[in-house]
Amino acid sequence: CSNAAEAGKVAVLIETTASDGLVTLSTQLITSLRCVAEPLVFSDLEQTIGRHKIHNVLSRVAPDAQADNPDFDLYRMQQELLVVGQEKTLLSSHAVNQSAVINMHRYKYLHMVELAWKLQPHRDWYVIINHDTYLSWPNLLRFLSYYDPKQPWYLGRPEKTLDGSAPRYYGLGDAGFILSGALVRAWNVNHKGLASRYDLRLREEPWSGDFLVAKALLDDLKTRLTDVLPILQPNEPAAVPFNDETWCKPAITLHKLDSRQLDAMHQVEMSMGGDGILFRDVYNTSYFAGFPFERADWDNLAEDSGYALAVVPNDPERARGQWEPKDLINPHQNFMACELACIQHDRCFQFSLLTK
What we know:
Elements: H1 4-7, E1 10-15, H2 23-30, E2 40-43, E3 47-49, E4 52-56, H3 63-66, H4 73-83, H5 98-105, H6 108-119, E5 125-130, E6 134-135, H7 137-144, E7 154-156, E8 158-160, E9 169-171, E10 177-180, H8 181-190, H9 194-204, H10 209-221, E11 226-227, E12 253-254, H11 259-271, H12 279-286, H13 335-344
Parallel strand pairs: 1-2, 1-5, 2-4, 7-11
Antiparallel strand pairs: 3-4, 5-10, 6-12, 7-10, 8-9
Helix pairs in contact: 11-12
């Protein structure tokens, strides 16, 4: 690992849950995080993975917030199973109600930042990611070199709140977000106990954990999110929006990768001799065989509201002799009519036909 001196200035916080198991986390630690000397792993159950301790960050939540709170039903069950040595019964996502995991997750982020300061104080940067996130270490260090950690930076991929709550934008946790050392220091020195003060409010408010970070930073530290899209990605490779604006840009995070994908990205980055991956490398690694023209039962996200185009009746005159105009005027009629609708739309590059 190169840049050892720079690496020692960055704390990496990893959020996971007991129900996720340790397989993906294990791969993450030996691939994209292998150059991180002391990654901080935070969960809802205290465990050990190799030389790494997994910290039970929910143990720091205020007792008043936990008492008689259904958000902590799963947490209490986990602790009871741990006492009798049966915690492995929970280490399978199909055995756990995912809404219970989400409710419990909301309380983690603020306490993660406070515990990270206690365990690794005075770092220049604090980077928060999930256990299934690929983190390009070379790209991260290069990116952070352009920012002054002595200033209060909150960097992330903006997500807009749907109900108009302030702040209107917060750093989406799935993409990861970054806090400067100055901001984390001000948080823990000038606003001690900040996380505990929000614990009780979470009982009454439907806030997500990543939104709560943005709210606390704005209300208490007067710091707003700085947009660093697209280099922090909340998407898995199959859903990354590849285009001419992203193709040659570095990718710092990719989300929802399994162990095989984490290793594949790591192998590509290792072969580049210290250069970080670009989005074109993500594409070439994920689609080394290219895209097929047609595939059944394939969700290419064409129906997604962010990509959908208005569909108008086809113009048979533009078929140029390649098509039988009969039954092609209605774009929804069949596969060929749908393909013709895409060809006739200047902005269309893919299509999807849904049949009952």
